[in-house]
Amino acid sequence: MPEDPIAIPVPPEAGLAAEVSGEVATLTLDRPERLNCQSPHTWAALADVAGQLPGTVRVVVLRGRGRAFSAGLDRAMFTSEGVPGAPGIVSLARGTAEQAGELIGRWQRAFDFSSRPAVVSVAAVQGHAIGAGCQLALGADIRIVADDAQFAMAEPSLGIVPDLGGTKRLVDLVGYSRAAEICLTGRRVGAGEAVAIGLASRAVLAGELDAAVAETVAALLAVPRDAATETKALLLAAGARTQAAQEAAEREAQYRRLRALAGLDGEA
């Protein structure tokens, strides 16, 4: 039987709900009345929660409550006042480049759910995934989308740049030319196109999204943990290796797995 979920405390201003049930953590953007728009409070909470997940967690599900995954940055952040406790992003210009870089660097950490080999992240995307919403989905390993999903990198249209790690992730997924066209026009990418170009792995009817995510999570958990971790590590490093180097890494990983399966771990 599934374990009862355990809530992870999150500050109310973050607009985020987090819980762990057995090997699965679910992080839900929880401002449905504002289409789950985000603020630096959201990003601080995402980073904090990711850092305190128990080692037993194998899968992280990212989702949004209501009809949108996330419509992006809270528009109040484009004013000088920002939101309570977080000045607007224009205030970054008043400090030094080092200060701005340090703060943006902290925000970027909240969008990296794919670099840990022992954890697989799944973004369940319905409705809008705009700007920071798109970049949060890009930070997951797998994106499963409802048929009403709309991705957009809207930042250049607002006079700024995508700065939450999404530019490289988008290029890695869809190639430079498509990424340039998507970012530099700010257009929406629907569910069908997202699957066709590799931005999403699967599209389903909106009413079937929860079931599709649950099916994927179950399939991920059915794979032995150590084999999954070694395989994900190989995939993460593949883009930076030559074919020969990747094959060597595969040989080394396979030898480790075979020794573990034979009960020879730790033996000389």
Helices and strands, in N-to-C order?
A: EEEHEHEEHEEHHEHEHHH
Question: In terms of per-residue confidence, which ranges show pLDDT below 50 for 5 or more consecutive residues?
Answer: none
> How many separate helices?
9
Distance between the termini: 40 Å
User: How much helix, percentage-wise, in residues?
Assistant: 25-40%
State the CATH topology of the largest domain: 2-enoyl-CoA Hydratase, Chain A, domain 1
Short summary:
Pfam families: ECH_1. This protein is 40% helix and 16% strand.
Can you walk me through this structure?
The chain has 2 domains: 6-222, 2-enoyl-CoA Hydratase, Chain A, domain 1 (Alpha-Beta Complex); 225-261. Helix 3 crosses helix 4. It is globular, with a radius of gyration of 19 Å. Strand 3 (24-29), helix 1 (40-52) and strand 4 (59-64) form a beta-alpha-beta unit. It has 9 helices and 10 strands. 40% of the residues lie in helices and 16% in strands. By secondary structure, the protein is an alpha/beta fold. The mean pLDDT is 96. The strands form 2 sheets. Strands 1-2-3-4-5-7-10 form a 7-stranded mixed β-sheet, sandwiched between helices. Belongs to the enoyl-CoA hydratase/isomerase family. Keywords: Lipid metabolism, Lyase.
